[in-house]
């Protein structure tokens, strides 16, 4: 496996783990365990930063000289898809957790 393939696999792995942590966080909301939900969401964000750093390295390589450029493959497109899907899922779940948490606090105050 060459360096480019390792980067692509790292992007897929980090993105997939980020998405999984975000959905685990949402599951914690069912039992009103917001502390665990926020912890898992932070883990998701940390993994997203890892994925972002990998993506940035790939983009920088693409912008380099012709000899440094990497062939765009279906696997690379798949990795990008994983990354973008994970970001959208995490952002949406973050907002959902905030909504549920506010609702539960309002209900407890009544």
Automatic annotation (TrEMBL):
It comes from Companilactobacillus huachuanensis. This is PTS lactose/cellobiose transporter subunit IIA. Gene3D superfamilies: Phosphotransferase system, lactose/cellobiose-type IIA subunit. The keyword Iron does not apply. The keyword Transferase applies. SUPFAM superfamilies: Enzyme IIa from lactose specific PTS, IIa-lac. It comes from the Bacteria. The modification Phosphohistidine is found at residue 78. Keywords: Phosphotransferase system, Sugar transport, Transferase, Transport.
């Amino acid at each position: 496996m060459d360096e480019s393939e390792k980067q692509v696999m790292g992007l897929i792995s980090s993105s997939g783990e980020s998405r999984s942590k975000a959905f685990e966080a949402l599951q914690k909301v069912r039992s009103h365990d917001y502390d665990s939900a926020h912890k898992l969401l932070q883990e998701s964000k940390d993994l997203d930063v890892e994925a972002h750093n990998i993506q940035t390295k790939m983009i920088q390589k693409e912008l380099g000289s012709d000899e440094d450029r990497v062939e765009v493959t279906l696997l690379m497109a798949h990795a990008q898809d994983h990354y973008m899907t994970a970001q959208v899922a995490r952002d949406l779940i973050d907002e959902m957790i905030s909504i549920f948490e506010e609702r539960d606090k309002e209900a407890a105050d009544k």
